[in-house]
Amino acid sequence: MDKIETLTSENAIVVFSKSTCCLCYAVTILFKELGVEPLIHELDHDPEGWEIEKALVNQGCNSPPVPAVFIGGKLVGSTNEVMSLHLRGALIPLIRPYQSLA
Amino acid sequence: MASTSTQFVTSRRMGMYDPLHHINMWDDAFGCDISPNTGPSSITQVTDTRQTNKTEYNSQESLGPSVDNQEAKSMSDKLQRRLAQNREAARKSRLRKKAYVQQLETGRLKLAQLEQELERARQQRMYDGLLNTSNGVLSTNVNSGVVAFEMAYDLWVATQQKKDNELKEVLQSQVSELELRMFVDSGLNHYYELFQLKVNVAKADVFYLMNGLWRSPIERFFQWLGGPRPSELLYMLMPQLEPLTDAQLVSVSTLKHSCRQAEDALSIGMEKLQQTLSQGITIDITGVGSYNSQMTLAMERLEGIENFLNQADHLRQQVLQQMSRILTPHQAARGLIALGEYFQRLRALNSLWSARFREPIS
Fold first, then answer.
1. Measured between beta carbons, which residues in chain A are less than 8 angstroms from residue B299?
2. Among all residues of chain B, which has the CA nearest to that of A28?
3. Which of A56, B41, B89, B358 has the fewest C-beta atoms under 10 angstroms from its C-beta?
């Protein structure tokens, strides 16, 4: 989907979220803790939100469709995948190119 | 002559097989109601036979000295009969006592069972009070999922103890590393089974899971999102696994750190959920929000709790999986045993603690 393409190619880390979803909030907190600033795109604040949601479900993000995490333009997955990667020590290498030194 | 006959009757009354005396003693110990069905009738039976014996004896007596031999013969007959009746009565008395003791035993077991059920019901009522829903249909639905989980959990604990013992034996015997690995994997899978059970009960009653109501109070004291905190378990296990290679130390240290970060993120997310939930249902003095829309939104947020609990268990599972990759089968086996032992001790501590004010049974 175009919008997803654009957003994810222009931004290193994108988290598709909903303002009511606190699990999405938890994921963004984790990224901030790791020294990166993800772009948070709230689907419920986007008029095209439900289209994006449909596209995400098509790409494999269902139950729930959010949070959907893209790193370097590629779909990483939802909370499960992010947590698994991090505990395996594989998340930090993924985001290293984008980590701020602050 | 009459006086000697009464003396003779009295001395026999004090003899060995004196059922009436025996029952009277027992009567004093337990009160008048022993076994109401058989007691009084047989006592009266014995008394009756005694009466008849006495009257018989007395009537025999009145016949005079000419029937002395017959008298002696019938006396020994009567004596035999008396002794037999005494034995019979004593036997019946022993049987009744045995039945009574058995009743007491089953009563005791039933009491222990009821106490356990009462404790469970009490805990159930506790969280029912937290969940502000209309009763009736909702709570019965909730309970069946919870009841099923509790039964499954009891079985799980028993199986876990068996597996831990098995693992201890296997460690001590000369078994190949491959076989040991199989035992370790089996142990890990058993923990994963528990996480699956919890996924199911989360759908039935999320607050039951959140409050850890199937666990003992002391386990709940250490609780984080419906179970033990995985990074805490790592801290606890580390000394049990020594010696570790340098590479292993680094890996475990990194795992601990990442796990802690993930836990913190989930905790912060959960806090946000609580805040937005409570803010969302408070009375809006501007009058913009409506009761219905607020409640609908609140219901949506409550549904989010299940996801957090599932993520917490996912984290626990990931920690176990990672540890099994970092450690050798031998170390992993030791780790599993230590883990099982830790939970068992927590539960034992809980029993000791809750029993500390009970009077010892004399």
1. none
2. B265
3. B358
Question: What distance in Å separates the CA atoms of residue A97 and residue A34, rounded to the nearest whole number?
Answer: 12
Buried/exposed B86-117: b ≥16 CB within 10 Å, e otherwise? beebbebbeebeeeeeeeeeeeeeeeeeeeee
Q: How confident is the model at residue B164 (pLDDT cuts 50, 70, 90)?
A: very high
* Exposed e or buried b per residue across B300-325, where buried means at least 16 C-beta atoms within 10 angstroms of its C-beta: ebeebbebbbbbbbbbbbbbbebbbe
Nearest CB neighbour to B268, from listed A26, A79, A80: A26
From CA B352, how far away is CA B347, in angstroms rounded?
Answer: 9
- Alpha-carbon span B252 to A21, nearest angstrom: 32
Q: Is A29 on the interface with B (CB under 8 A)?
A: yes
**A29 to chain B: nearest residue by CA?**
B265
Predicted confidence at residue B285, as pLDDT, reads 67
**In this complex, which of B273, B304, B311 lies closest to A83 when CB atoms are compared?**
B311
Alpha-helical runs (H) found in A11-60: 22-33, 49-58
* Cβ-based neighbours of B5, under 8 Å, separated by 6 or more: B57, B58, B61
- Cα torsion angle, A66, A67, A73, A76, sign: negative
Q: Residue B359 — pLDDT band, cuts 50, 70, 90?
A: low
> Residue B261 region, left (φ>0) first, then alpha (ψ -120 to 50), else beta?
alpha
Cis peptide before A93 (omega within 30 of 0): no
Q: Does A26 touch chain B (CB under 8 A)?
A: yes
Q: How confident is the model at residue B112 (pLDDT cuts 50, 70, 90)?
A: confident
Q: Are B219 and B343 in contact (CB under 8 A)?
A: yes
pLDDT at position B32 over 60: no
Compute φ and ψ for B21, nearest 5 degrees: -65, -45
Candidates B231, B303, B320, B312; CA nearest to A26 is: B312
CA distance B267 to chain A (A): 8
Residue B26, amino acid: W
Section B134-152 average pLDDT: 68
Domains observed in chain A: 3-98 (3.40.30.10)
Residues in chain B with CB shorter than 8 Å from the CB of A34 are 261
Lowest average pLDDT, out of A27-41, B25-39, B215-229, B284-298, goes to B25-39
What's the pLDDT score for residue A17? 94
Task: Return the DSSP state at B228.
Answer: B
Q: Is the pLDDT of residue B44 over 50?
A: no
pTM of structure: 0.68
Residue of A nearest to B259 (CA): A87
Instruction: Report pLDDT digits (tens) over B226-238.
Output: 999 999 999 999 9
